[in-house]
Specification:
Oligomer: single chain
Bound molecules: flavin-adenine dinucleotide
Structural class: alpha+beta
Shape: globular
Radius of gyration: 21 Å
Length: 217
């Protein structure tokens, strides 16, 4: 299914910035680490930041069974977004200031994953997205921990991607005036140096799956 193929996933403004390529959706989701989940609770909209993982055309989310999120989300309609901010666009006019970004919006129902094998697979997807290598390295969840965790699946069937790149689009008049700087200040998000826990046993070395991801300061 192409992106933006349903009425509510079609961009109204600047539709030329929409991508219909599913690969762009996967790229945003695979690069991002935090999403924002919007849903309706007691008749009012709520948007919460949340971690996630993607497998094929499904995004998995998890939350504590005791949380208000779980109660409100179960089987309900939701909207999930992930944004990569690539730069601040400085224009000659404040009006034409902008941001460079890649953003994804997904619409659909969050269906609870209760099948034990599928639930574990979904949790592995989330863990391996946020902390690759940790599923094999860290202790596996206990039955109690699994029972305390609700997992939801959101299909990527109804999604849109919007991408802005490039310099500011100034009024020709402002460009001609000539005395103000214009351009892009790019943003880069990186991991830096790992900070070992104070209670770490002396003989525990930094495992390769974390060392390779870290960048020395
Ligand atoms: C980092 C960032 C900062 C932004 N800042 C602003 C701002 O300050 N003011 C502002 O007006 N807009 C801003 N936008 C753009 C904003 O997200 C909307 O795209 C914009 O408001 C116009 O939406 P529309 O009328 O096309 O959307 P609507 O008609 O309201 O939406 C229709 C459908 O289009 C899709 N869609 C809309 N926007 C996006 C998107 N960004 N990514 C993927 N799918 C989308 C969704 O599926 C949505 O349901 C920003 C976007 C990003 C990523």
């Amino acid at each position: 299914v192409r992106l933006s193929s349903t009425p509510r996933s079609i961009l109204t403004r600047k539709p030329e910035r929409a991508s219909t390529d599913r690969a762009d959706l996967y790229a945003v989701l695979d690069l991002g680490l935090v999403g924002h989940l919007g849903f309706v609770r007691d008749g009012a909209p709520v948007v919460l930041p949340i971690g996630y993982g993607r497998k094929d055309d499904t995004v998995y989310l998890h939350a504590s069974t005791g949380s208000g999120l779980v109660e409100a989300l179960d089987g309900g309609d939701a909207c999930f977004t992930v944004t990569m901010l690539d730069g601040i666009v400085y224009a000659r006019s404040v009006f034409d200031h902008s941001m460079n970004y890649r953003s994804a919006v997904m619409h659909g129902r969050c269906n609870r994953v209760d099948d034990p094998a599928k639930k574990l697979e979904a949790l592995e997807t989330i863990v391996e997205h946020l902390a690759p290598g940790s599923w094999a390295y860290a202790r596996q969840p206990s039955r109690k921990e699994l029972a305390a965790t609700a997992v939801f699946a959101l299909s990527l069937a109804e999604a849109s991607v919007k991408i802005r790149t490039g310099p500011p689009i100034d009024d020709p008049q402002d460009v001609r005036a000539g005395h103000r700087w214009a351009g892009v200040l790019p943003i880069k998000t990186t991991f830096t140096e790992p900070e070992p826990s104070a209670d770490l046993a002396a003989d525990v070395r930094l495992p390769p799956h974390i060392a390779t991801r870290a960048t020395p300061r």
